[in-house]
Automatic annotation (TrEMBL), chain A:
Glycoprotein found in the keyword field: no
Protein name from the UniProt record: Ferredoxin-NADP reductase
Cofactor: FAD
Alphabetical UniProt keywords: 2Fe-2S, Flavoprotein, Iron, Iron-sulfur, Metal-binding, Oxidoreductase
Keyword Signal: no
Residue stretches making up the 2Fe-2S ferredoxin-type domain: 240-326
Gene Ontology MF term list: 2 iron, 2 sulfur cluster binding; metal ion binding; oxidoreductase activity
Domain called FAD-binding FR-type: residue spans: 16-116
TrEMBL record, chain B:
A Pfam family recorded for this sequence: DmmA-like_C
Dimethylamine monooxygenase subunit DmmA-like C-terminal domain: residues covered: 117-161
Protein name: Dimethylamine monooxygenase subunit DmmA-like C-terminal domain-containing protein
Taxonomic lineage from the root: Bacteria, Bacillati, Actinomycetota, Actinomycetes, Geodermatophilales
Xref: InterPro entries: DmmA-like_C
Length: 326, 170
């Protein structure tokens, strides 16, 4: 993505700002969705970030990525909205237990879903809790006077941030509680938008697939369509490839549906890891040959383009072999 | 910088085909050979898909204005196919990308690379020449002798030119 930031970025390559934050307010945005306000314990400005960025929070022994809903200008507070996933791995439940005054640690913010600065118009599509990065996009678009529209689908009664979205977007917002209606609306929008429009979608995997397929069929080139997936669980199994370890000479096959990280571990190769969903940066491995297929949220755009590192927990290889400096 | 990093375009050897998912096509042919490509593309467009087609001797101001009007009114799903000498095709592509078209929406068939345009870094005028890259050309704006540098600005569709021996001046 060609992201150019209206705000000074704190997302330089490799640099990982470690933040200690204090929960300053807790509120319910919708049933099961908790909005947390975070600030520096002593007060003061937090780093600005491109719209659509996320913060990686240490929560309940895990690290989860949560979208920042602000417009990205440096501010005294960050806000995140977290959906409680009762059968999730527990990260969201831990966040839901936090109270005002609690101290938490985080890294970031990191940008992997930024607006396109040259876009003539932006179509923002959100499903469920996928509204959070797009609320950030909408706020920034309003702030900078950029043309956009937002299509937001959610289950009846489960819409988050509705009042602020209406106030912010006015008639640029379309809210749909009915899935068929949302999909029909997406289809008609994608059928007729000016050249120079970009689409940004965040939501459940089937919604993202619908947007990508519909856009493709209507002649949208892939580089006009930008998606943010909730988690590694939403990633497809991918193609099999072989990891070749340059130093030890070991060859480790990585079947479809198995991560590079899991395959290496099974072969007795120790690789540090933590989140196992492409957000924390622990499992980064140096690549010496083969093209990585980046599927993480961790590496910055220049690092991806360089192709000399791969996040083993989620990313794969576009070639038959990926050579690692191990 | 090695050759791999030059911004001088290397054009695909194959003539691009009409994209079957396109919902509207713009075809622009410059010169006789460019016009011939437009004719072939036109015949390959699915019936019912609207086509804007234009041919001209060169990518002059009038032609580029017509193209700009077409791009300005286009909706996503539109594709542009350009054919002609590199110098004309670069100028046309710069107009299209300046109005929001992406490289993935533009196909190019280059019929000749003999001519090039050189943008003077000193007076900002543009001079056309048949000098090769690394050759020398007299700027029509300021009269300086310009070195034709191996850098093509996508925005201007022209090579960068700067004064020969610029570094030796006081
Ligand atoms: S283990 Fe966290 S990015 Fe891979």
């Amino acid at each position: 993505m060609t992201a150019v930031l209206p705000a000074p970025a704190a997302t330089g390559a490799g640099e990982q700002a470690r933040l200690v934050l204090e929960v300053s307010a807790v509120a319910d945005a919708a049933p099961g969705i908790r909005t947390l306000t975070l600030r520096r314990p002593g007060g003061g400005l937090l780093p600005g970030h491109p719209p659509g960025s996320h913060l990686v929070l240490d929560c309940g022994g895990r690290r989860n990525a949560y979208s920042l809903t602000g417009d990205g200008m440096p501010a005294a507070e960050y806000r995140i909205s977290v959906l409680l996933c009762p059968d999730g791995a527990g990260g969201s439940a831990a966040v839901h237990r936090w109270r005002a005054g609690d101290r938490v640690t985080a890294t970031g913010p990191r940008s992997a879903f930024a607006p396109v600065s040259t876009a003539r118009h932006a179509v923002l599509v959100a499903g469920g809790i996928g509204i959070t990065p797009l609320l950030s996009h909408a706020r920034a678009a309003v702030r900078w006077g950029r043309s956009f529209e937002l299509l937001y689908g959610h289950r009846p009664g489960a819409g988050a941030h509705l009042a602020e979205l209406h106030a912010l977007c006015g008639d640029r917002l379309g809210v749909h509680e009915d899935t068929a209606e949302l999909l029909a609306r997406i289809g008609s929008v994608l059928a007729d938008r000016p050249l120079g429009t970009h689409v940004h979608v965040c939501g459940p995997a089937p919604l993202i697939a619908f947007v990508e397929d519909t856009a493709g069929a209507l002649g949208w080139p892939a580089d006009r369509v930008h998606a943010e997936r909730f988690s590694a669980a939403d990633l497809d199994p991918g193609e099999p490839f072989v990891a070749r370890l340059a130093r030890s000479g070991l060859r480790v096959p990585v079947p479809a549906g198995t991560s590079l990280l899991a395959a290496l571990e099974a072969a007795g190769v120790a690789v540090p890891s933590m989140c196992r969903q492409g957000v924390c940066g622990e499992c980064r491995l140096p690549v010496t040959a083969g093209r990585p297929l980046h599927r993480d949220l961790y590496l910055a755009e220049p690092e991806r383009a360089a192709g000399d590192a791969v996040m083993a927990c989620v990313s794969r290889c576009a070639d038959d072999e990926l050579e690692l400096d191990l | 910088m090695g050759a791999a990093h030059t911004s001088v375009p290397r054009w695909p050897a194959a003539v691009p085909a009409v994209d079957p998912v396109a919902r509207r096509l713009a075809l622009l042919g410059l010169g006789a050979r460019g016009a011939a490509h437009v004719q072939r593309w036109r015949a390959a467009v699915r019936p019912g898909v609207p086509v804007w087609a234009h041919t001209a001797a060169r990518a002059d101001d009038a032609t580029l204005q017509l193209l700009a009007a077409e791009v300005g009114g286009a909706r996503v799903g539109w594709r542009l196919l350009l054919a002609g000498p590199e110098v004309d095709v670069l100028a046309a592509r710069a107009v299209a990308t300046g109005l929001g078209a992406l490289d993935s929406e533009i196909g190019v068939a280059v019929t000749s690379t003999r001519r090039r345009r050189v943008w003077c870094a000193h007076c900002r005028d543009t001079t056309e020449t048949t000098q090769p890259v690394s050759g020398e050309v007299r700027c029509r704006g300021c009269g300086r002798r310009l070195h034709v540098y191996a850098h093509v600005s996508r925005r201007r569709g022209a090579h960068l030119g700067f004064q020969v021996d610029a570094e030796e001046l006081p």
